Every structure is written in C-alpha cells, then in structure tokens.
C-alpha cells in the first residue's frame, strides 16, 4: 500500500521539525499507541493496539528515524509484531517546505502486512492503512498548531496544541 499526501501546518518548519523528533508528540499522534520510549537518535520502542477488520492485535515494535536533513525532512520506518495476528511494517518519507504562514508537510507512506491480517484482503488493509496515516498526520497537525480559534477554551481543546505552546 502506498499513500502520498501533504498538509499545511500553521507553524514554522523549526517547530514542526522539533515535534517530529519528540516521542511524546509521536505517542499522542499514533492511533492506539499505548507507550513509546527512546530517542530520535537510537529509535523508539512502541506498543500499539489496533483492530483491523475482525482481527485485533497488540503490536510491539521499533520505530527508527533516518535520512535526517535538519529542518527539511526525514524518513520514519518501523516494524511491529502482533503475535498470531501477524506483523506490520512500513515507513514514511516526510519533507518540510516553508510556505507563507507555516510549513507544508508532505509524506509518502508505504505499508506491508503479513500473517492473519494479510488474509483480510488488500481493500481492507489499504483502507485501514490510509485511515491510520490520515489520523496520524491530522493529530500531528493539531498537536503542533493547536485548536481552531472558534474552539479555544473548551477543556478538550486545551489539551491540543500543547507542543506549540510548550516551545513558544
């Protein structure tokens, strides 16, 4: 499965870059992520619980950052094992481009699965992988930008955009 898309984030490339290297931001952005430890230099260990069609699995795996071009882009790659459910592996090539008022984050995602999950069929898997990628980058954008102006003040939205507030 391959997915190519981009998002315009209303934050400087430096803020977006710092968020991409922050394990707390990544943990909050990965759907179903129960824990993430480690560092950008050594890689992150993650535990993610997901349900793909009728198959539920708890994946444990390693996420590595490579091809770091400071402030401009990187490659995120990971592989997780879900026991009898199978495995998932993939990555995303992420590039950052300054635009008026912020940063254009472009990404190319590639994902592969094996085992019981692979038996679900490519339509279900492709749909799930697209949903996961869209959800990750949507959460990432919210963590960096913060909530829309109209939403300011509610308790739920106070938690969002915490990274940008932290480094501002």
Which spans of ≥5 residues are poorly predicted at pLDDT below 50? Answer: none
- Topology as H/E string? EHHEEEEEEHHH
β-sheet strand percentage: 35-45%
Count of beta strands: 7
- What is the first-to-last residue Cα distance? 37 Å
Helix content: 25-40%
SSE diagram, text form:
Layout: E1 2-9, H1 13-20, H2 23-29, E2 33-39, E3 43-52, E4 55-69, E5 73-81, E6 87-99, E7 102-114, H3 122-145, H4 155-159, H5 162-167
Antiparallel strand pairs: 1-7, 2-3, 3-4, 4-5, 5-6, 6-7
Helix pairs in contact: 2-3
Descriptive report:
The chain is an alpha+beta fold. Helix content is 30%, strand content 45%. It has 5 helices and 7 strands; from the N terminus they run E-H-H-E-E-E-E-E-E-H-H-H. The protein has a 7-stranded antiparallel beta sheet, covered by helices on one side. A hairpin with a 3-residue loop joins strand 4 (55-69) and strand 5 (73-81). Helix 2 (23-29) crosses helix 3 (122-145). The longest helix is centred in the C-terminal third of the chain and has 24 residues, at 122-145. The N and C termini lie far apart (37 Å). The mean pLDDT is 85.
Question: Care to give the gist of this entry?
Answer:
Helices cover 30% and strands 45% of the residues. It is an alpha+beta fold and 168 residues long.
Quickly list its features.
single chain; alpha+beta; 5 helices; 7 strands
């Amino acid at each position: 499965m391959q997915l190519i898309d981009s998002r315009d984030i209303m934050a400087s490339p430096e803020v977006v870059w710092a968020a991409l290297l922050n394990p707390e931001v990544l943990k909050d952005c990965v759907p179903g992520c129960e824990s993430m430890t480690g560092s950008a230099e050594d890689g992150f260990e993650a535990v993610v619980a997901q349900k793909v069609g009728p198959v539920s699995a708890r994946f444990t795996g390693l996420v590595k950052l490579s091809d770091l071009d400071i402030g401009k882009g990187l490659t995120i790659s990971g592989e997780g094992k879900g026991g009898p459910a199978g495995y998932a592996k993939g990555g995303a090539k992420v590039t950052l481009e300054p635009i008026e008022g912020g940063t254009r984050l472009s990404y190319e995602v590639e994902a592969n699965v094996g085992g019981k999950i692979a038996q679900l069929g490519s339509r279900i898997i492709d749909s799930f992988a697209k949903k996961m990628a869209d959800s990750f980058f949507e959460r990432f954008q919210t963590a960096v930008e913060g909530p829309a102006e109209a939403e300011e003040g509610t308790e739920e939205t106070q938690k969002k955009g915490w990274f940008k507030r932290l480094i501002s």
